Amino acid sequence: MSAPKAPTVKEANLLVYDVGSTYTKATAFRLEESGSLLFLARGQSPTTLEDVLLGAENARQSIAGQGVGLGADLRRYATCSAAGGLRMVALGYMPRVTAKAAKEVAMTAGARVMEVISYDEPLAYREEALREIRPDIILLAGGTDGGDRESVLENAEIIIRIKSKAMVVVACNKDAQARVAARFDAAGIPYVRVPNIMPTIHELNIKPAREAIHTQFIKQITKAKGLDRLQAMLADKTVMPTPGAVLLASELLAKGTYEQEGIGGLILADIGGATTDIHSALPELENLKPEERGLVINNEKQFSYRTVEGNLGLRVSATGIPEAVGPLSIIRDMGLREPPATPEEVVDYTRRMEKEPSSIPANQREWAMDKALALSAVAVALRRHAGHFAKEADPVLGLAAGTPVGRDLRSVKHVLAVGGIFYHTKTAEKQEIMTRALADPGISLLPVNPRFHFDDHYLLYALGVLSRHFPDSALSFLKNYIRT
User: pTM of the full predicted structure?
Assistant: First the structure.
């Protein structure tokens, strides 16, 4: 991707911050009266934990140093990933259903699902898990409306017994909510009631629960010094979770608006230091009838679906990559002639990256190692995200050998790649990483000859924020951004 050319008069009226754990970024745009959105400049500065406003101001000054001024009608917006996300535990009735609902709820709300606990787990295990994880938020699910109540009340008693400090999002069977609320009131447990996330067996109602979690995310991150003052400066007084903003941009690009068509199905591959995230948006799935989705709702047939591989990262979880594919696979992907790397060298490098996550490759050999690790991370993550062809018949499920199972990505034509590895890598090398990651799908239902796009200017987070207020302008910009 290349950013559209800036106008002759460089005066921004939109400024979007991203407060990260290491760096604070600022991106300046100009929204013209015609609705055209113009990219002006991007700046960054180390995040200042003693007062995040200092880092934000330094990032803004970096933009000013590029000759971009701020108009009198400037509107500010912001995202944040510095808090690392809320630690969430989901308590429910059926394990697969609870897991799918929890992932959907957490997807853009700034939460990390640490554990999914179902009714078939022993009471002692449920209690022990909550004590050990000490979540920031508990999603109390279970039972369709008019269905199971016992599991919800049982889990509520566990929360009371351990005197949990977590905010509990009560998103269960509506017939059990009043009793749960009464018990929490008596015990002093903080909670918020929202409509059942699964009112029927083939329906998810996740928006209210997601908004409740987002509210808690905002409360947590504003504990950072100065972030409350930054929030007060924003046009919408809302700090979005950075991953959620990126996903909103990709969903807008895929689906479009009432006024403009999107580009259709797409995949977003985000390779970070700690995780590799895959997000796919398939607009055609919104038209499925309930019976086509199946008797039990599943995420694979939702318009938007995200998976997070917590053991596949280029720094904080680097050792997880050779553990997943084997050191020899990394060595082959490095493509070195003489001398080739050894398995010990691969393992030593990943261990060093985990201990020193701010490190960058010191020479061409280490760059080759980083690119090979990225290739393996995205290849594994894509296969885990995508569906597959059934290897053998399953009479119970009514599947014949070769039947597509899970999320079918074969018709996807666009793949967006995000992450520092792509920012610091030449275009040909970026293309090679993604092409080879998809070169041998095997039984996976992966795209065939898609077009690859790269967020070279780190703009997706900003466009995701702006899409909430100026969707058509953001979409027009995005379509031009990935076309060039």
Answer: 0.77
